[in-house]
Amino acid sequence: xxxxxxxxxxxxxAWLELRVWALMxxxxxxxxxxxxxxxxxxxxxxxxxxxxxxxxxxLVSGAGPLANVGSVLWSHWSRGKExxxxxxxxxxxxxxxxxxxxxxxxxxLGLAVLVAAVLCAQNLxxxxxxIRASIWQLNYSRxxxxxxxxxxxxxxxxxxxxxxxxxxxxxxxNPEGFRWLFILTGVGAFASLVQSRGIRLxxxxxxxxxxQRDAGRSFQPRLFWAILRDDHLYRDYMIWMMVFGAGNxxxxxxxxxxxxxxxxVSSFEQVVIAAAxxxxxxxxxxxxxxxxxxxxxxxxxxxxxxxxxxxASLLILLGAVLPSMWLLWVGSxxxxxxxAGGSLGWNLGHNDFAPDDRAPEYLGLHVSLxxxxxxxxxLAGVACYGALERWRPGAGTWALAMPLLLQTVGALGxxxxxxKLRRA
Length: 424
Known about the structure:
The protein is mainly α.
C-alpha cells in the first residue's frame, strides 16, 4: 500500500506500524462478532444446554461494543506510563487469551472459559486501541494521520475479511480446527508484539510529564451526567443513538441463530454474510461517506446513513423469512456500506457538539453508552428469538424484525432532529 502522501520522515515508521496492525488484524478477524458467534454456535452445538448456547452467542457477538465501557478506564490506566511498554503488555495478555481459547474442552466449562476469554480479549483490545490513539497523535500530523489511518483501514479490513471467510471454511471442514485458528492468530498477536517494540514516539517525554502532572485527577462519571443535563441537543442525539445503535448491535446474534437453526446455511456462508462481506465492503465505501461527513452536521449525516442500515436489515429479514439467499447477500453488502459511514460518525460525530476542551468527555459518554448497548442488545435479540421459537417452531426468523424496528425508529428520530437543525 503506497504511503507517498506521508511526509518523507514518517514513511519508515508508518511501514512498521502497518506491519504491527496487519498482524493484529489476524486475531481481530477471528474475534469479529459474526465470526465468533458462528464459531461458538458451530463447535458447541449439541454439547451444551439449550439455554447456554444462545446466551454465549449473544455475549461473544456483543463483546466488542461492550468492551468500549473500559475505554475511559484504560485511558486513565495508561496516563503517565511509557506507551510502547504499556502497549506490549496488553498485546501479551491479548495473545494469551487466544491461546486459552485454543485449549478449551467442548463442554459447559469450556464454553464458559471461551466466553470469558473472548470478553477479556476484547477488553484488552479496547486498551490497545486507546493507547494507539496516543501513539498516532504523537507521531503524525493531522494530515498525515488521516492519510495513514485510511491506508490502515483498507489493509485491516481486507485481512479481517479474509480471516473470517477462512474461519468459516475451516469450520465446514472440521469444527475442531478452531483450535488451530486461535493458535495461529495468537502467534500473530505475539509477532505483532515483537514488531511493536520497534515503534519510537516523538515528544513522549513532554507527554509523560504532562500526564504525570495530572496523575491525581480521577475519572469522574458525574461529568457525563452534566453533559446530558446541560446539552439538550447532544442528549437527544444520544437518545436516538441508543435506539438506533441497539438495533445495529441486536442484528448479528439472532442472525447467526437463524442462519444455523432455521436455514441450515454452511458455516462459511454464515461467516461471509454476518461478518466477512460487510468488512470487505467497508474500506471501499468509507471515502464516499467521508466526503459527505465533511460537509454535513453529524445529525444530518446520521439521518442519511441510517437509511442504509434500515434497507440492509429489511433485506436480511425478507431473505430469512422467504427464504432467499440472494436477498441475504445483498443485505450484507448494504450493511457494510452502512457500517462504513456509521464508523466515521461514531468516531467523529461528538466533535459537532463538544467545545474543544470537552471533546474527550463527550466521546467518553458516547463510548460508555455504546458499551451498555453492547451488553443489552444482543441478549435481547437472542431472547426474542428463543421466545418466538418456543411459541412456534420456525417463527424465530421474525426475531430479525426487532432490530429492523429499532433502526427504523432511530432513523426517524435522526430525520426529525435533522429537520429541526435545518430550521434553526
